[in-house]
Amino acid sequence: MKEKRNNLSNKLSLVLIIGIILFGSCSKKDDAFVNRKVSFNSNWSFHLNDSLIDKDTIGTSTKWRTLNVPHDWSIEGKFDEKSPAGYGGGSLNGGLGWYKKTFKIASEDINKTITIAFDGVYKNSEVWVNGHYLGKRPNGYIGFQYEISPYLNYGDKNNEIIVKVDNSKQPNSRWYSGSGIFRNVWIQTTDKLHVAQWGTYITTPKVTAEKASVNFETTIQNQNSVSKKATVTTTIFKEDIKVTSVTQDITISANANQTIKQAAQVETPILWSVEKPELYISVTEISVDDKIVDQYKTSFGIRDFKFDTDKGFILNGKQVKIKGVCLHHDLGALGAAINTRAIERQLEILKEMGVNGIRTTHNPPAPELLDLCDKMGFIVMDEAFDMWKQTKTKYDYGNDWDKWHKKDLIDQLLRDRNHPSIFMWSIGNEIPEQWNENGVAIAKELAAITRQYDKTRPITAAMNPPVNMNLDGINLQFDKAAVQYNKIAASGVLDIIGYNYAHQTYEYHKKNFSGIPFIATETTSALETRGYYDATSDSIKKWPVRWDLKFTEGNPGNTVSAYDQVQAPWGSTHEATWKVIKKHDFLSGMYIWTGFDYIGEPTPYEWPSVSSYFGIVDLAGFPKDVYYMYQSEWTDKTVLHLFPHWNWKAGQTVDVWAYYNNADEVELFLNGKSVGVRSKKGDDLHVMWKVPFQPGTLKAVSRKNGKTVLETEIKTAGNPSQLKLTADRSTIKADENDLSFVTVDILDDKGTLAPNANNEINFSLKGNGKIVGVCSGDPVSHESYKGLKHTALSGKCLVIVQSGDKTGRLELTAKANGLKQATIVITAE
Ligand code: GAL
């Protein structure tokens, strides 16, 4: 590995050299590196109508509107108690949607291969270009592409693409799916001789501190009607500096694909890790007669890992506990329409909490999530399916299984296998067939396909554990005699045994099935509403009380206490779960259900609740209190988090909790008087005081060896009196895509957060941009996420501002009756 040079002139000449290497002698026109893939997101026309189901009559409709994709039409709709999606699907409707777009293709591209690539369309998409039917893709989560060059008009003549999206048969998901072209769309233009779609596969079979061997398997596609002699050069770069390159001459037959193998070595490789996610770039270049005809970039990482039966997950020789969370794909108020900044913000919030792993439940994620996990350092479990042939909801993917599962799985593997952040493939979540031999046969088939396309990562499945779940859900016990052992787990087909929940059985597992590494694929399912507290926190509540029955009782307002005391009966509290995971080395780690709240599955309630209570962070992105328990355990950051708020009725006794670290004790003071000193004993994860309420100031002081480490205060708030706006970023890009997430706090006249304030807030924006989402994190709210007003929850609300295509000032104003308004300026550059 060459050293980075500091001298400026050296740097400049380097940039020049790289320029020549990357862009060669190509003129702008055939500069494949720049033109290969361009966004096809803007200026689509959209039409939502169930009755116009014919491609030929849809054009006569006048109800088209213009928009940019990624787009999710369900999030624009009204919450509907009778929605066929059910409360599980977020009570938002699907339907039948049409997209169309006209576009021109330059006449000089007439001899090129032009492909349209969709990263994901939910669901049952069908595509036509200039009247030619290109095909159908039922799976909403996988990327797919069609070559369109044979059907195009070149030069001044228009082309028309029509996409039909059919999400009308519901329910087809256990959570909110969203509807439409909800991921990015690209046009790819290449020479007829090019690297095939997802055509590179980079592995690093041998990694030591001195050297890493890097193997390239590259599939080249020749769409010429004659055979071609070409040179394939693969060059590795690290931060724009050439590391090494390999070259091979090939002859490829007419209309054929050819896969070539190349190998290189990287001296003193800079390894990818969670703390320092170092990436390399490989550039594949195809030249014919010394002219570069195609260039293809692949980002990859060099790391060495294994899952060990006794020591869990070992990354680059070091034991790393996977502190992961499960994530569904929706982005709160933005719905399922992906936005890179919104995903990045989620990951930033999770990273700050100490999370180092993401499980992509229960489907292939947006490619941008994986790119970000590569860059930010997360250990990803990439999951393929929530069901196989046997359906979980009436119209789900089980219906498409026979025809599509093989292709969908292969495409996921081809798409994802170069991501260094992915360490495991999961072939399914809580698959009903896990209990029978039929499931074993399917698992074997899926594992064989997976191993055919990637032997470098272990295969797991998120299974139900071998427990006999007591119907009350209370005495979840391993019952040796009664157990119906999971057939897939027992079949030996998996490299890692993955169980969801039942942390009580992990030790049993170790005793009886040692020899196979183990991971808690899904844990916890604890429940909280941000900012709502049952005054006493002594008892653990299982809600619903019986896992197999409808939940009928509950609190007014469908709230759940935010002390870590409420769990689904199949789950456990955050603290109980982490204590077990922490204790045993053989547990590689866990993926908590869930990092963020998501739309749909509002356990323990049903309608009028429409979004989940499982998140450690709410739907708006505001952390719930337990976030700080993890931060105190999972990060080096010094933490002292005190809760609940301090607005109670006189005389009421309130449980006051503190999460802390890096200290021996915490002392609590009420209005200057000590309430007592507490310190965590044994495996405690928090301390608690019972405090008779008196208005005023509650103050906590953490100390180490008698010295103050941190202090924090909570004050009784007076009446709500003013609004405060805080932007996560006050400068954003003027690219019609970038976002600023603005927090609205409702404060009293002294600036203290009013913890029970639920004022309706009205928003307006001046400048070239728009408000694209509003959300308070309240699972019971039926206000539109796309409106210009929203009711706060526990004193807080979020408004999301998106830039337009012009630079300038974006001035956001928030107003509420009786409160002093607030304005904030965001600059679009
Ligand atoms: C799990 C399931 C998840 C989610 C969760 C809620 O069993 O895998 O998708 O439904 O329960 O607790």
Layout of secondary structure:
Layout: H1 8-23, H2 32-35, E1 37-39, E2 44-48, H3 55-58, E3 65-67, E4 95-103, E5 113-118, E6 125-129, E7 132-137, E8 144-147, E9 159-167, E10 185-190, E11 193-207, E12 211-222, E13 228-238, E14 241-252, E15 256-267, E16 280-288, E17 291-300, E18 305-308, E19 312-315, E20 318-319, E21 322-327, H4 340-353, E22 357-360, H5 367-376, E23 379-383, H6 401-416, E24 422-429, H7 437-453, E25 459-463, H8 487-491, E26 497-500, H9 506-512, E27 518-524, E28 541-542, E29 566-567, H10 574-583, E30 587-593, H11 626-634, E31 640-643, E32 653-660, E33 665-670, E34 673-678, E35 687-692, E36 697-704, E37 707-715, E38 722-727, E39 731-732, E40 739-747, E41 760-766, E42 769-775, E43 789-791, E44 796-803, E45 808-815, E46 822-828
Parallel strand pairs: 21-22, 21-30, 22-23, 23-24, 24-25, 25-26, 26-27, 27-30, 28-29, 39-46
Antiparallel strand pairs: 1-10, 2-3, 2-4, 4-9, 5-8, 5-10, 6-7, 6-9, 11-12, 12-15, 13-14, 13-16, 16-17, 18-19, 19-20, 31-32, 32-35, 33-34, 33-36, 36-37, 38-40, 40-44, 41-43, 41-45, 42-44, 45-46
Helix pairs in contact: 4-5, 6-7
The structure holds beta-D-galactopyranose (GAL).
